[in-house]
Write a structure and sequence with these properties.
It is globular, with a radius of gyration of 20 Å. With 208 residues, the protein is mostly beta strands. The protein has one helix at 64-73, and strands spanning 16-23, 29-33, 36-44, 48-56, 75-81, 84-90, 109-117, 121-126, 128-134, 140-144, 148-154, 158-163, 166-171, 178-183, 186-190.
Length: 208
């Protein structure tokens, strides 16, 4: 005889997407505060900021029911404040849920896609996300703990701080001060050949 088995795969835990567009002056400020996932930033010539945040479960622990609850409990704050817009991953509700307190602390990923004015001020505070910024002309501040970042086509000021992070920054034009500080991480910077600048560097203990 022939035995036929029909196996039904259990449905994957659904992602959740939050989107919002807000007005922002050409020289306004955007702050992003997140934990893990990714941040993709694209400048444009509009006087507004558009945000899409996709919340994705981290299936390294917890049941599908737990993961579904954790995705639902993970919030994304996108709100105006004067001449600035604040974007934040909010895990407060998640961290009081019963399943999360049972010992698995696997927060969902939040993947951001952000479009903002080309000359705005952008400040990113991150724990361990992958950050990608292209062709940005404004003042960029990036503080990441164990994240990686690829910054391409920069032409404004850069303030960079990382702990065990990996950052590559390529400048289209060097027109403002660049500050970088790293602890146990690698930072690679590339400038146009015709750039003239004064370099001040301190490798510290065990640095290269």
């Amino acid at each position: 005889g022939v035995l036929t088995l029909l196996l039904a795969a259990s449905p994957a835990v659904a992602d959740r997407t939050v989107s919002k567009t807000l007005p922002l002056a050409a020289d306004g400020k955007v702050t992003i505060d997140t934990y893990k996932g990714s941040i993709s930033v694209t400048p444009w010539d509009r006087t507004e900021v558009a945000v899409e945040a996709r919340i994705v479960p981290d299936d390294s622990c917890g049941s599908e029911k737990d993961q579904r609850e954790w995705v639902a409990a993970t919030g994304v704050v996108i709100e105006p404040s004067g001449r600035s817009v604040r974007i934040e991953s909010d895990y407060d509700q998640l961290e009081t849920s019963r399943g999360f307190l049972r010992g698995c602390t696997s927060r969902p990923f939040v993947h951001y896609r952000v479009s903002l004015p080309r000359a705005a001020t952008l400040k990113i505070h991150d724990y361990k996300s992958d950050t990608d910024v292209k062709d940005f002309a404004g003042h960029l501040t990036l503080d990441t703990y164990k994240g990686s970042a690829t910054l391409v086509g920069l032409s404004g000021a850069l303030d960079l701080k990382t702990y065990k992070g990996e950052v590559r920054a390529a400048f289209k034009r060097l027109s403002a001060a660049v500050h970088a500080e790293t602890f146990k991480g690698d930072v690679t910077m590339t400038f146009p050949a015709e750039s003239a600048f004064e370099l001040s560097a301190d490798a510290g203990r065990k640095g290269e």
